[in-house]
Recover the amino acids of this structure.
């Protein structure tokens, strides 16, 4: 079955520093991949998605992700984090039976 | 416009009681989804609706769980004879259409269920 793995449970980053969150997927063909963010007290929000085409995807809030088939990865990046980026981030893929399958999540802490 | 709303926001119940969780999707959204978020299992898909129909109920954890949607709008998730392992946050999402799951899903704030 398709699944995504987020190797990092928790990341701490300084405000203004760059951020990269890792996601590896297991799948034979091109998967459908998403990144969602869950901020404290707020619902899940879609940051970006990749279905096909350009492998560098731009999302909201200054985030981008790059699909790398050779590495089975879909890492999320942001050049300069803000304190408001402290949240839990989920890498998600769409399975063959049309269901979103969520990774375990990575919690990001931003220090001043 | 209004987003997805869920009620109640918090529910505490005793083991063995039945509970109903409600979801109001974004107006005009034909697809609706239920998820469960718990410490042990992470975020898991439960069921989805296209209109009032739920084509696949295999994600429901047991036969104590059921869901319905009426009028292509409001949905209720019912848990009968609640158990402590049912304690979790239940999330609802909706999308404009189903599109094989590719349409952007908009999530509600969730209902936190605690079974004592």
């Amino acid at each position: 079955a398709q699944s995504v793995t987020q190797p990092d449970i928790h990341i701490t980053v300084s405000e203004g520093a760059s951020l990269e969150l890792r996601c590896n997927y297991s799948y034979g063909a091109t998967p459908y991949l998403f990144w969602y963010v869950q901020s404290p007290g707020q619902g899940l929000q879609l940051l970006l998605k990749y279905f096909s085409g350009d492998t560098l995807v731009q999302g909201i809030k200054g985030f981008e992700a790059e699909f790398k088939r050779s590495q089975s990865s879909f890492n999320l990046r942001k050049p300069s984090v803000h304190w408001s980026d402290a949240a839990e981030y989920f890498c998600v893929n769409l399975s063959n039976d049309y269901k979103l399958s969520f990774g375990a999540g990575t919690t990001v802490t931003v220090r001043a | 416009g209004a987003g997805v709303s869920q009620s109640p926001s918090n529910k505490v119940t005793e083991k063995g009681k039945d509970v109903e969780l409600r979801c109001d999707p974004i107006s005009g959204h034909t697809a609706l989804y239920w998820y469960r978020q718990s410490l042990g299992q992470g975020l898991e898909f439960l069921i989805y609706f296209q209109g009032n129909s739920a084509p696949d109920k295999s994600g429901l954890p047991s036969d104590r769980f059921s869901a319905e949607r009426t009028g292509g709008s409001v949905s209720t998730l019912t848990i009968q004879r609640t158990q402590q392992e049912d304690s979790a946050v239940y999330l609802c999402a909706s999308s404009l259409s189903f599109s094989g799951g590719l349409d952007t899903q908009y999530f509600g704030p969730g209902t936190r269920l605690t079974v004592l």
User: Anything to note?
Assistant: The radius of gyration of chain A is 13 Å. The CA atoms of residues 18 and 79 of chain A lie 4 Å apart.
